[in-house]
Write a structure and sequence with these properties.
Blueprint (H helix, E strand, L loop, with lengths): L3 H11 L7 E9 L2 E6 L5 E5 L3 E6 L2 E2 L17 E6 L3 H4 L1 E10 L2 E11 L6 E9 L14 E3 L5 E4 L19 E5 L21 E4 L3 E7 L6 E6 L5 E4 L37 E3 L5 E6 L12 E5 L4 E8 L2 E8 L7 E6 L5 E5 L4 E7 L1
């Protein structure tokens, strides 16, 4: 009969430990980069929160792309996410989220534009969506975009901090996830399109400040990451018409230490798939579907700002069954996470001298 030590050695030989990924710097000197999208020619579109859109190729950072709209770059606001139209190879269309000045304050907006053939300017710019109402606040813009398999576009929207009760109010876009067509109109099949007084773009509600969004490749379902207050950061899989609780239920407390809402649960309100307490401040989100790290297939990767790490969440049959913290030694605020065409994982670090990092074997 094998001794325990011999059995353990046998297991380790059968299931060898995976080496930690190598971290490479692809580019540096970006001012608070926020969103990243891969171009078909191997370049990357990267937003800087201060209001600049750049193209990065082979480590070289372009001059700012011309034609970006006026941006309210204060607090958490600025130029936020960028995604390519699913038919980009034919139409060169991109979508940007940004904080826009308006009567009464500001709000999150979506711009659709064409990237010129030479990549130096935006053309045919049109704002296709504006979060309502405008609020005089510099916080909780949300702003992450994700295309669903049917071609509709999901957008995460924060409660703007000072208006948190509005996350429960269907007459506003505050604290909501919306779903629109590529022309900005409400996507067909949205749950509140026929409800009087409700905003027809709303997909789900009761959100605080979701800044991560990813489509699960195996199911086509949307997953999001959401900032809590002091604790209570969440991973959710938002479903049509459902209420995710904020600010009635939460696993966090106010920054003063005071209780928020009625507790952690209430009938008719959804529970998160996963939550963090204390907070890690999750931002970018991506499912791993490449070949470079086969042991991560189907897992969820979440960047952490306050937590200064990358978190791998082990996903099995729609449930999170494990968690691994990585890259803590870097001490970097990780703003966005993307899986590249090469199977590597690309990260944006959120600081005035931000970098694009690549995780390789």
């Amino acid at each position: 009969m094998k001794t325990f030590a011999a059995l353990l050695i046998s297991i380790l030989l059968t299931f060898p430990a995976f080496a930690a990924p190598k971290v490479e710097t692809v580019a540096e000197g970006l001012e608070n980069p926020w969103g990243l999208a891969f171009l078909p020619d191997g370049g990357m579109l990267v937003t800087e929160r201060a209001g600049r859109l750049r193209i990065v190729r082979e480590g070289m950072i372009s001059a700012p792309v011309e034609g970006v709209p006026d941006i309210v770059a204060r607090g958490q606001g600025g130029l936020l996410d960028v995604v390519l139209d699913p038919a980009f190879a034919q139409n060169r269309t991109i979508f940007l989220t940004f904080s826009e000045a308006r009567d009464g304050g500001n709000g999150t907006s979506v711009l659709r534009a064409r990237l010129s053939d030479d990549g130096v300017r935006l053309e045919k710019q049109v704002v296709i969506f504006r979060q309502l109402p405008a609020i005089a606040s510099d916080a909780h813009f949300g702003g992450r975009l994700a295309f669903a398999p049917d071609g509709s576009l999901f957008l995460t929207l924060g409660d703007r901090y000072s208006m948190r009760d509005s996350a429960q109010d269907l007459s506003t876009h505050l604290g909501k996830i919306i779903r629109i067509a590529r022309d900005g109109k409400p996507a067909q099949g949205n749950p509140f399109m026929s409800q009087s007084g409700a905003q027809p773009e709303i997909w789900s509600y009761g959100h605080r400040n979701p800044q991560g969004a990813a489509i699960e490749p195996s199911t086509g379902l949307l997953w999001t990451s959401e900032h809590g207050a002091r604790g209570g950061d969440e991973i959710n899989r938002p479903e049509a018409g459902k209420n995710y609780g904020w600010p009635v239920v939460t696993y966090g407390r106010d920054y003063s230490g005071a209780k928020i809402g009625v507790g952690t649960a209430k009938e008719g309100m959804e529970q998160p798939l996963h939550y963090w307490d204390p907070s890690i401040a999750p931002s970018g989100l991506a499912f791993y579907s490449g070949d470079l790290f086969p042991q991560w297939q189907g897992d969820l990767l979440a960047g952490a700002l306050a937590g200064t790490k990358l978190v791998r969440l082990d996903v099995e049959d729609g449930k999170i069954v494990g968690e691994e913290a990585m890259l803590e030694d870097l001490g970097e605020r990780i703003r966005d996470v993307r899986v590249g065409p090469d199977g590597a994982v690309y990260l944006l670090t959120d600081n005035p001298e931000g970098r694009i990092l690549r995780l390789m074997k």
